[in-house]
Amino acid sequence: MEACPGGGQWLDAHYDPVACVNTFSSCVALADLSGDGENRLVVGDVGGSGGMKLKVFGGTALLSDSSLLDLPAGLAAFFMDLHEPRIPAVAVASGPSVYVYKNLRPYFKFTLPGSEVNVLEQDVWQQVREGHIDHVTLKEMLESIRKQADVPLSVRSLHFLSLDAAATDEFVQLHKQQPIRRQTVITCIATLKKSTADEDGVSCLVIGTESSDVYILDPEAFIILSKMSLPDAPSMMDVTGQFDVEFRITVACRNGNIYILRRDSDKPKYCIELSAHPVGLVRVGKNVVVGCMDESLQAFTQKGKKLWSVVLPAPVTTMASMDLPTRGFQAVLVGLANCEVHLYRDKNLLSTIKTPDAISSICFGRYGREDGTLIMTTKSGGLIVKILKRTAAFEDRDGAHGPPPAQSIRLNVPKKTKLYVDQTLRERDCGAAMHRAFQMDLSRLRLAATKAYVKALESSLTPMSSSLTEPLKMNAVVQGLGPSFKLTLNVQNTAACRPVMNLAISFLYDESLYRMRNPYMRIPLLVPGLVYPVETFVECTSDKGISDIIKVFVLHEGRSVPLLTAHINMPVSEGVTLN
Amino acid sequence: MGLFDKLAGWLGLKKEVNVLCLGLDNSGKTTIINQLKPSNAQAQDIVPTIGFSIEKFKTSSLSFTVFDMSGQGRYRNLWEHYYKEGQAIIFVIDSADKLRMVVAKEELDTLLNHPDIKHRRVPILFFANKMDVRDALSSVKVSQLLCLENIKDKPWHICATDALKGEGLQEGVDWLQDQIKTMRT
């Protein structure tokens, strides 16, 4: 248990970095599975290191784990009957089926009805069975059917098309006798109270499928009560209301839109088009909060009106709602890729929880006997349990958002002067001419600058050498008040690795004004990168308080054209003026 | 005073002392108090306490009035209103609930830092209850997790108990009685 900065509202109850739970928020639920008032954590583990498992945690321990037949797509705990003791059943959606567990034992399996099969495909396989066509023809015909495809191919045909030529024979022999079936796959699952809003009321299962349908199942008989269709395959779902009264299903689909389904309509009522694909979907009260792939958190009303949007510091990994009815507190927990979990109430960031690893699933609710428990699993399979302090208070830290308070202070803007009015009138009247004049001056300025630059380059007047063999840089510093000055020249070889040799420095100055101790100096070998200070002393001989320019040349031995030239504006000798 | 005490003892009048019984919900406070009562006054069924209840029992020299506080989260803010009256505290811990040991510690820290308790030398008796449960932590482990060694300015004592059978309770109550007696004299 380590200290958690910024999470002063939470107690670190448990952290097991090697709990081996690889799951997502859709496969986690809290439920009182033993009916003793202590909630357990049910996890549909997608495996990774081990197999796919249904795990149950209680307190800090793993209470049970049982193998799952297929990869879990979603998990929900719900009451399916009114029998005492009130123990909820667990529904695990995997593949085309929902497996219902009661008392952690398999109880019922519901499989979605098969979809319609392509008639042509059926004919082709029929012919194969009768031995009329060989595998090459089969492959060609299936390919052509797939291209026309008003009804998509079955899984078997798609599998066949993906096989190598060598493996096709065995595959056909194995499968040709069975009839073709096309099964859709469940993508998400949720629960919907049937007729009462009670905490322990009987709930229906709501299932979203790959074939873009949403089914509502009767909890006792497991028959389809209602079927609704969407424009695209659903990926996340939130359900509220009661089946017999009025309900709303908010579905995030793979096409990046959110659709809102209502009772008495098998088509979506409203559509929210998002700027980026949704990663997490949470309902807070009557609003929908969506975390998107463009690192934003957006809120919409039930009717699809956008309320607010917040930019997040990192991509969203998962989301969950934090609902504390006893304190009237509702917020959204957002797991981020930078190993943080942010808590938002509306658009205000309330607190940040640092986690040792990126979070893959979040679940908030009653665990054990504690109402405000936050359970998170990490990407590496760790399990973190945090408990909300009884005394925790969340304050809106609304500092960064919205207009600053200074904005509402009225500035004392002075009245418009006559000059201002005149200028404005002039600008309005002859704006074009002013612009032209400005542009011409700008061009002239550019020309003058370019000319000066070319001249400097031609006469090596720059303090940077343009020669490729001796790339040098120099700057000069004059120190002192006068009449004696110290002149320091910092020479640097800017080449990558080649040293420069046989250089000298010479000065050109007015000999009636200045006297120099050594007007010609040899420079040692210059190692690349290092700065070599070359120092000399200059004495001003004039007492008239005037100054002049001293020109510095860096020369290569045996060449008359200087490599570098620098003009040093000497300061006025203050020592003389004082006299 | 000593003579008066003895006289009171002969007459069967015992010193009254107010004790607070605190701890998380489901830790066994009411069960412990029930066990300490005379067997003819014991209740058969223990239900979660709402708010608080006042119970009385006697030991060889003292007459205890126990404020049995409810441990449920929503009633825990009632505790602090009784700190002033309490001359001793019984703090009950569910040794089998490892997950909520941090919550117990948090509540204990809040208790110890409360102005009504902080500067008083109130004896605190800890009952590490539910020792009969299979995975229960030992009393040493419980005192480690609650950082009891940091309590320097108050006398405290921890007992491993099983309130269903009544094991360990008498030892704790004897200690409490001695502490209260030494406080008085």
TrEMBL record, chain A:
Residues 10-262 form the Bardet-Biedl syndrome 1 N-terminal domain. One of its GO terms (biological process) is protein localization to cilium. It is found in: Cell projection, Cilium membrane; Cytoplasm, Cytoskeleton, Microtubule organizing center, Centrosome, Centriolar satellite. Residues 472-574 form the Bardet-Biedl syndrome 1 protein GAE domain. It comes from the Eukaryota. GO terms for molecular function: patched binding; smoothened binding. Keywords: Acetylation, Cell membrane, Cell projection, Cilium, Cilium biogenesis/degradation, Cytoplasm, Cytoskeleton, Membrane, Olfaction, Protein transport, Sensory transduction, Transport, Vision. GO terms for cellular component: axoneme; BBSome; centriolar satellite; ciliary membrane. InterPro entries: BBS1, BBS1_N, GAE_BBS1, Quinoprotein_ADH-like_sf, WD40/YVTN_repeat-like_dom_sf. Pfam families: BBS1, GAE_BBS1. This is BBSome complex member BBS1. It comes from Scomber scombrus (Atlantic mackerel). The lineage of its organism: Eukaryota, Metazoa, Chordata, Craniata, Vertebrata.
Automatic annotation (TrEMBL), chain B:
Keywords: Cell membrane, Cell projection, Cilium biogenesis/degradation, Cytoplasm, Cytoskeleton, GTP-binding, Lipoprotein, Magnesium, Membrane, Metal-binding, Myristate, Nucleotide-binding. It is a peripheral membrane protein. SUPFAM superfamilies: P-loop containing nucleoside triphosphate hydrolases. Mg(2+) binds at residues 30, 49. GTP binds at residues 23-30, 71, 129-132. SMART domains: ARF (SM00177), SAR (SM00178). One of its GO terms (molecular function) is GTPase activity. Coiled coil: none annotated. The keyword Membrane applies. It is found in: Cell projection, Cilium membrane; Cytoplasm, Cytoskeleton, Cilium axoneme; Cytoplasm, Cytoskeleton, Cilium basal body. One of its GO terms (cellular component) is ciliary membrane. It comes from the Eukaryota. InterPro entries: Arl6 (IPR041839), P-loop_NTPase (IPR027417), Small_GTP-bd (IPR005225), Small_GTPase_ARF (IPR024156), Small_GTPase_ARF/SAR (IPR006689). GO terms for biological process: cell projection organization. PANTHER family: ADP RIBOSYLATION FACTOR-RELATED. Belongs to the small GTPase superfamily. Arf family. This is ADP-ribosylation factor-like protein 6. It comes from Scomber scombrus. The lineage of its organism: Eukaryota, Metazoa, Chordata, Craniata, Vertebrata.
